[in-house]
Amino acid sequence: MKNRIAIKITLLYLAIGFLWILFSDQFIYLTVKSADSITVMQTYKGWFFVVITSVLLFFLIRKEIHKKEEVEKRLTQAKSKAEEADLLKSAFISNMSHEIRTPLNGILGFCELILDDSFTTEEKKVFAQNLTKNGGDLLKLINDIMDISKIQENQFEITTKRFNLNNLLDLLYYEYQQSDLKELRKNVSFKLINDEKSPIVDMISDSVRLTHIFRNLLNNAFFFTPEGFIHFGFEETETGIELFVEDSGCGIEESSKDHIFKPFFKGKNMVVGNKGFGLGLAISKGLVRLLGSDLKFKTQVNVGTRFYFDFDKKDIIIKKPEL
After folding, report:
1. ∠ CA(106), CA(112), CA(116), 5° rounding?
2. Which residues does residue 298 pair with via DSSP β-bridges, in sequence order?
3. Residue 213, Cα to own-chain centre: how many angstroms?
4. pLDDT tens for residues 218-228?
5. Is the dihedral of CA 288, 289, 290, 293 positive or negative?
6. Count of Cβ atoms closer than 10 Å to residue 101 Cβ
7. If you average pLDDT over every residue of the chain, what do you get?
8. Rounded to an integer, what distance in angstroms lies between the CA atom of residue 165 and that of residue 206?
9. Mean per-residue pLDDT for 182-201?
């Protein structure tokens, strides 16, 4: 870098000096007719050369310094990304050792209990139920890891077709009404915002991915809301519709707002022990972007959080209900 700058400055100086020696006298004789003026110009000709070369060298050096600063900036950004990648890798390994071992230990443990003839048939049925649950947890972890990898590598396939949004939300509502999450959160009022005045909406999008997004957001809402309410649905806006999941849970701390969509981030500190794998919001953010929108949130500590994203009128067909 330094040698290249030195060579540029030297060549520029030689080029200007060479041209000045060849053409400066001719230029003076062409522009100045008086002998006295020519004498004065010849006297100050060297100063003109110094000024011109100084100005040109100033701009050249400033340009080279700017290039150097840009290179250093890119190197700093690359270093920062590498450090972040190392941090995510460490978080991934820590979570893998805990989260994957937990269901695996459950699977192996209940398999041993089922094979033990000292237990009754009814007890073995309970063991089998727990075995199924741990197997499901393990499968979900593996699916989440595959999903986030596909999103980061831009390999996630989106299949768009027309479907009815109201029916999709109704199915989700009935699914969670009968789920274990709802049973655990008996003090939580779970509601689908879809009254008689709500429009009937057909969407041109990927219903499978949209369902995946809502499930991730609802799972988070149930986990962080021990009591109060969880509402989800959509609202008509001037530009289209806004889909949302809102809760009265613990909210998101200021220090965590810039990190919640990062993979493996599960709170203020990325530590082993928090429930979940820290991938739900990262996956949802990526899927919403693939669907052509952006997942945003509003939050207040100890008051609640609202995650939302919108679709323009070009992606939806709104029909007013008959009253």
Report:
1. 140
2. 306
3. 14
4. 999 998 898 99
5. positive
6. 11
7. 80
8. 11
9. 82
Cβ pair 290, 311 in contact under 8 A: no
Q: Do 322 and 240 contact (CB within 8 A), yes or no?
A: no
Residue range 214-258, pLDDT digits in tens: 999 999 999 889 899 999 999 888 888 999 999 998 888 888 888
Left (φ > 0), alpha (ψ -120 to 50) or beta: where does 154 sit? left
**Order of strands, sheet of 316-319, starting from the edge strand that comes earlier in the sequence:** 161-164, 200-205, 316-319
Q: Is the pLDDT of residue 27 over 60?
A: yes
Q: Mean pLDDT throughout 65-89?
A: 80
E-strand ranges in the chain read 161-164, 188-193, 200-205, 228-236, 240-247, 296-300, 304-312, 316-319
Of 269, 271, 263, 221, the closest CA to residue 245 belongs to 221
Tokens of 61: 């050096």
Alpha carbons 101 and 98: distance in angstroms, whole number: 5
- Most distant CA pair in the chain: distance in Å? 124
Q: Hey, what amino acid is at 269?
A: N
Reported residue count of the chain is: 323
**288 confidence band (pLDDT: 50, 70, 90):** very high
103: left (phi over 0), alpha (psi -120 to 50) or beta: alpha
Closest CA to 231 of 194, 180, 178, 281: 194
Of residues 287, 234, 280, 233, the one with CA closest to residue 260: 280
The 3-state DSSP composition of the chain as helix, strand, coil percent (nearest 5) reads 60, 15, 25
Lowest mean pLDDT among 1-10, 77-86, 312-321: 1-10
- At 175, list the tokens: 């699914």
Strand 161-164 and strand 296-300: the pairing is unpaired
